[in-house]
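As described in the Methods, two query proteins were run sequentially through the folding procedure within a single session, without resetting any intermediate state between them. The first query and its resulting structure tokens are shown here.
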Amino acid sequence: MLFPKKVKYRKWQTRRKNPNKIKADTRGLTVAFGSYGLKAETAGRITSNQIEAGRKAISRNIKKVGKLWIRIFPDRPLTSKPAEVKMGKGKGDIKGYCAEVRPGRVLFEIDGLSDEESREVLRKAGAKLPVKTKVVKRD
């Protein structure tokens, strides 16, 4: 699983999640490395476990023929308090890392497969993620 080697601040403040104010992403919008990409249509937080699940789904299906690029990295810490603990007493411990994704961001890219195979592989990977996705082709 992916996580940063070193971080300046162990815990981050929580961002507000108003769905009306979530704007489209400005970077990572186009397919840059491969010929097909998986693009996020909604905003969300993708944990390192979910990225790994998507990576496994893709690599299992492309075998040794295709190549894969992961275009997101989980650098945001997620905290949680243990179950059945009373309110207060500070912020919870770090349970993992996530990547914050906004609409339009390309998450995965693949190359070296046919049109039909590429779409099917990326569709399977999109099923593992908590955001709505679509398969896009390089311009």
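Immediately afterward, the second query was submitted; its sequence and tokens are:
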Amino acid sequence: MESKSKAAVDLQKEIFLGGLRGQRPVIPSEVSALRKLAERKLSAPSFDYLDGSAGRHHTNLNNQQAFHHWQILPTMLNDVSVRNIGTNLFGAKFSSPFFLCPIGVLELAHPQADLAVARACESTGVPLMISSQASTPIENIAGQMPTTPTFFQLYWSKSEELVASFLSRAERSGCLAIVVTLDTTLLGWRTKDLDHAYLPFLYGRGLAQYISDPVFQRLVRQEPPRAEPPPKTTLTLIRSLWRMASNFPGSTLQNFRTRSTLAAIRKFIEIYMNPALEWHDLNRLREMTNLPLILKGIQHPDDARKAIDAGVDGVVISNHGGRQIDGAVSSLNALTLCKEVVGDQIPMLFDSGVRSGSDAYKALALGAQMVGIGRPYAYALAVAGELGVRALMENFQAELELTMALSGCKNLTEIDKSKLHYRSH
């Protein structure tokens, strides 16, 4: 694949020359400033759903603070006049080691949601992990990325028939691999969402993969009518039902009258989590697809060993950005533990807590082959749509390139643990 990443020096020049014409960057280059802009732009429930963490948010804090303990140890007088931040995975070439993590319900951030993100990915060559909880069907998202690889992130539901349908759709859409999320068989204790009493799925949001799926549609039609006492009619309830109806295919008025949206939401809630899964179940998943299987949510080195024994094709070292367990080990520390077990046997991808190109450098030095960006691109989407996401990825790529060169490396293969110093305090 031809490199689409913009050279760091060219991006700097573009920004500084733009300043002479009175132009400022589309988004701030520092993620904390971008986060503040996104918070001002979005409603509190929307922002908190995208930004929030489990419990007291300690795991999210651990994720970010872990990077401070690993300090870059540069070496001088290395020829870094020609630089390359490209990498390879499963036979595909990538212009940088970044990927965008699967984030559900992106319609909370921007009306164009996943489509805007996909277009930004296509223009920068950054692969996207398409979420099971996307606001847009997988086919439409992948269609925006004809030359840039996509992955499909799977929430393994209780309906194996639905899982098989999702996997088939991912194959037909040209996805490079299936990323199975293991850490969300139950929803974490997300305090901000609880305080708002807000779960977007109950409003029909983030369900595009389901309502566009023929198997799910059939499961909804087969659902027997329920004799439930009607809820007390309030203005809030009417507004909620109308919002649900507008998020489903067909006539909003017809959906509102028949309450068909409620049946679909009930079916989704009933089947989308499966806490009964065990390691031996991976054999059934392997039978459903020929695509490489990547397990996302690996944190314990014992699980890394089990993943290798199960014959999977890769792992993502991740704690879901701190959204599932409060007080869990940082994802970066989990990466160092799992690297001792995995070595070079299978690719290790990484996410959770990455807020800069220098963070990505440290993750690569500690054994990650590719590095995922999560919340920051949701902030960028909220602030400036497609252009914001594109600018964010260009910034991350440029900072990684400069950090690599200034530390004495001309390509990713030269980045290793010897380029870091650990400071415990």
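Residues 198-226+234-270 form one domain. We note this only descriptively and draw no conclusion about the first query from it.
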